[in-house]
Amino acid sequence: MFHKLERPGYFGRARDRKVADLNSKYGEGNWNLAWVILLDSPEGWEYRYDFLEACKFLYEESYFRYLRDKKDKLDFICSFGECIDNAPTNVQSGLDYSKQESFSTHIQDIAVRNVISRLGRRFEGPPDNILVIRSTDSRGFEFGPGNIPFAWPSLITKPYLTPKWANDLSVESFWQSNKWLMVKK
User: How much is the pLDDT for 162?
Assistant: First the structure.
Protein backbone atom coordinates (compact mmCIF):
# COMPACT_ATOMS: atom_id res chain seq x y z
CA MET A 1 0.00 0.00 0.00
CA PHE A 2 1.43 3.34 -1.07
CA HIS A 3 0.64 6.61 0.66
CA LYS A 4 1.19 10.20 -0.42
CA LEU A 5 4.34 11.75 0.97
CA GLU A 6 5.01 15.01 -0.88
CA ARG A 7 4.72 16.86 -4.14
CA PRO A 8 8.22 16.65 -5.62
CA GLY A 9 7.72 19.23 -8.39
CA TYR A 10 9.68 19.52 -11.62
CA PHE A 11 12.39 16.93 -12.41
CA GLY A 12 13.47 18.06 -15.90
CA ARG A 13 17.05 17.22 -16.83
CA ALA A 14 17.67 16.08 -13.25
CA ARG A 15 15.21 13.18 -13.70
CA ASP A 16 17.76 10.36 -13.61
CA ARG A 17 19.56 11.83 -10.57
CA LYS A 18 16.28 12.36 -8.70
CA VAL A 19 15.14 8.81 -9.46
CA ALA A 20 18.50 7.47 -8.23
CA ASP A 21 18.16 9.56 -5.05
CA LEU A 22 14.63 8.23 -4.43
CA ASN A 23 15.82 4.65 -5.02
CA SER A 24 18.63 5.22 -2.55
CA LYS A 25 16.35 6.79 0.07
CA TYR A 26 13.30 4.47 -0.17
CA GLY A 27 14.58 1.43 -2.07
CA GLU A 28 13.79 0.50 -5.65
CA GLY A 29 10.14 -0.57 -5.92
CA ASN A 30 9.20 1.08 -2.62
CA TRP A 31 8.11 4.36 -4.16
CA ASN A 32 6.40 5.65 -7.28
CA LEU A 33 4.89 8.79 -8.71
CA ALA A 34 1.15 9.30 -9.04
CA TRP A 35 -0.94 12.15 -10.37
CA VAL A 36 -3.64 12.81 -7.82
CA ILE A 37 -6.96 14.55 -8.26
CA LEU A 38 -8.25 15.72 -4.89
CA LEU A 39 -12.01 16.18 -4.81
CA ASP A 40 -13.57 18.76 -2.56
CA SER A 41 -15.85 16.44 -0.59
CA PRO A 42 -16.49 15.67 3.07
CA GLU A 43 -15.03 12.22 2.45
CA GLY A 44 -11.81 13.66 1.01
CA TRP A 45 -12.04 11.50 -2.11
CA GLU A 46 -9.15 11.36 -4.48
CA TYR A 47 -8.29 9.66 -7.73
CA ARG A 48 -4.76 8.44 -8.38
CA TYR A 49 -3.36 7.95 -11.85
CA ASP A 50 -0.10 6.22 -12.67
CA PHE A 51 2.21 7.70 -15.32
CA LEU A 52 0.59 6.04 -18.33
CA GLU A 53 -2.97 6.76 -17.16
CA ALA A 54 -2.13 10.40 -16.42
CA CYS A 55 -0.50 10.76 -19.84
CA LYS A 56 -3.45 9.28 -21.72
CA PHE A 57 -6.51 10.45 -19.79
CA LEU A 58 -5.41 13.86 -18.53
CA TYR A 59 -2.39 15.19 -20.47
CA GLU A 60 -3.31 13.89 -23.92
CA GLU A 61 -6.99 14.64 -23.44
CA SER A 62 -6.12 18.28 -22.76
CA TYR A 63 -4.20 18.41 -26.04
CA PHE A 64 -7.11 16.72 -27.82
CA ARG A 65 -9.66 19.21 -26.52
CA TYR A 66 -7.37 22.10 -27.43
CA LEU A 67 -6.57 20.97 -31.00
CA ARG A 68 -9.84 19.37 -32.14
CA ASP A 69 -11.46 22.71 -33.00
CA LYS A 70 -8.32 24.51 -34.17
CA LYS A 71 -7.97 23.38 -37.78
CA ASP A 72 -5.30 26.00 -38.56
CA LYS A 73 -3.08 24.82 -35.71
CA LEU A 74 -3.67 21.16 -36.58
CA ASP A 75 -2.84 21.89 -40.25
CA PHE A 76 0.38 23.61 -39.12
CA ILE A 77 1.44 20.60 -37.02
CA CYS A 78 0.57 18.15 -39.81
CA SER A 79 2.63 20.16 -42.32
CA PHE A 80 5.74 18.72 -40.65
CA GLY A 81 7.18 15.25 -41.09
CA GLU A 82 7.30 14.48 -37.37
CA CYS A 83 7.57 16.16 -33.96
CA ILE A 84 9.95 15.88 -31.01
CA ASP A 85 10.54 17.43 -27.62
CA ASN A 86 14.16 17.20 -26.55
CA ALA A 87 16.04 14.84 -28.89
CA PRO A 88 15.80 13.40 -32.41
CA THR A 89 15.45 9.96 -30.81
CA ASN A 90 12.02 11.01 -29.44
CA VAL A 91 10.44 9.79 -32.68
CA GLN A 92 11.26 6.23 -31.55
CA SER A 93 8.56 6.56 -28.88
CA GLY A 94 5.86 6.78 -31.53
CA LEU A 95 2.52 6.68 -29.70
CA ASP A 96 3.91 4.97 -26.58
CA TYR A 97 4.37 7.11 -23.45
CA SER A 98 6.39 4.39 -21.75
CA LYS A 99 9.23 4.72 -24.30
CA GLN A 100 11.36 7.37 -22.61
CA GLU A 101 14.79 7.15 -24.23
CA SER A 102 16.04 10.67 -23.58
CA PHE A 103 17.65 12.58 -20.69
CA SER A 104 14.31 13.98 -19.53
CA THR A 105 10.74 12.80 -19.80
CA HIS A 106 9.04 13.84 -23.03
CA ILE A 107 5.29 13.64 -23.27
CA GLN A 108 4.04 16.50 -25.46
CA ASP A 109 5.43 15.00 -28.68
CA ILE A 110 3.74 11.67 -27.95
CA ALA A 111 0.50 13.45 -27.01
CA VAL A 112 0.55 15.37 -30.30
CA ARG A 113 1.15 12.16 -32.28
CA ASN A 114 -1.74 10.46 -30.50
CA VAL A 115 -4.06 13.45 -30.97
CA ILE A 116 -3.43 13.82 -34.69
CA SER A 117 -4.08 10.08 -35.04
CA ARG A 118 -7.30 10.34 -33.00
CA LEU A 119 -8.40 13.19 -35.26
CA GLY A 120 -7.78 11.07 -38.37
CA ARG A 121 -4.75 13.09 -39.45
CA ARG A 122 -1.08 12.36 -40.01
CA PHE A 123 2.19 14.18 -40.58
CA GLU A 124 2.27 15.20 -44.24
CA GLY A 125 5.59 17.04 -44.55
CA PRO A 126 9.01 15.76 -45.53
CA PRO A 127 10.46 13.33 -42.94
CA ASP A 128 13.40 15.63 -42.21
CA ASN A 129 11.13 18.61 -41.41
CA ILE A 130 10.77 18.10 -37.65
CA LEU A 131 8.56 20.25 -35.42
CA VAL A 132 10.34 20.85 -32.13
CA ILE A 133 7.83 21.40 -29.33
CA ARG A 134 9.99 22.89 -26.62
CA SER A 135 11.67 26.24 -25.95
CA THR A 136 10.69 29.75 -26.98
CA ASP A 137 13.01 29.60 -29.98
CA SER A 138 11.35 26.47 -31.42
CA ARG A 139 8.64 26.59 -34.07
CA GLY A 140 6.37 24.48 -31.89
CA PHE A 141 6.72 26.47 -28.67
CA GLU A 142 3.02 27.36 -28.64
CA PHE A 143 2.22 23.63 -28.42
CA GLY A 144 4.40 23.05 -25.37
CA PRO A 145 2.67 21.85 -22.19
CA GLY A 146 3.25 25.21 -20.53
CA ASN A 147 1.01 26.84 -23.15
CA ILE A 148 -1.76 24.25 -23.61
CA PRO A 149 -4.65 24.79 -21.18
CA PHE A 150 -5.41 21.90 -18.86
CA ALA A 151 -8.89 20.58 -19.69
CA TRP A 152 -10.10 20.73 -16.06
CA PRO A 153 -8.28 23.69 -14.47
CA SER A 154 -10.26 23.52 -11.22
CA LEU A 155 -8.63 20.13 -10.53
CA ILE A 156 -5.08 21.52 -10.40
CA THR A 157 -3.79 21.25 -6.84
CA LYS A 158 -2.94 24.51 -5.11
CA PRO A 159 -0.60 26.04 -4.41
CA TYR A 160 0.52 25.60 -7.98
CA LEU A 161 3.97 24.14 -8.58
CA THR A 162 4.13 25.63 -12.07
CA PRO A 163 7.65 26.04 -13.47
CA LYS A 164 8.63 29.62 -14.35
CA TRP A 165 8.45 28.85 -18.07
CA ALA A 166 4.84 27.60 -17.93
CA ASN A 167 1.46 29.24 -17.46
CA ASP A 168 -0.72 28.54 -14.46
CA LEU A 169 -3.70 26.37 -15.45
CA SER A 170 -1.65 24.75 -18.22
CA VAL A 171 -1.00 21.06 -18.78
CA GLU A 172 2.47 21.58 -17.27
CA SER A 173 0.97 23.26 -14.20
CA PHE A 174 -1.27 20.23 -13.69
CA TRP A 175 1.61 17.81 -14.34
CA GLN A 176 3.85 19.34 -11.67
CA SER A 177 1.18 20.45 -9.18
CA ASN A 178 -0.69 17.14 -9.04
CA LYS A 179 2.39 14.88 -9.09
CA TRP A 180 2.90 13.13 -5.74
CA LEU A 181 5.68 10.98 -4.41
CA MET A 182 4.05 7.80 -3.12
CA VAL A 183 5.95 5.53 -0.72
CA LYS A 184 5.15 2.11 0.71
CA LYS A 185 3.91 2.11 4.28
Answer: 95
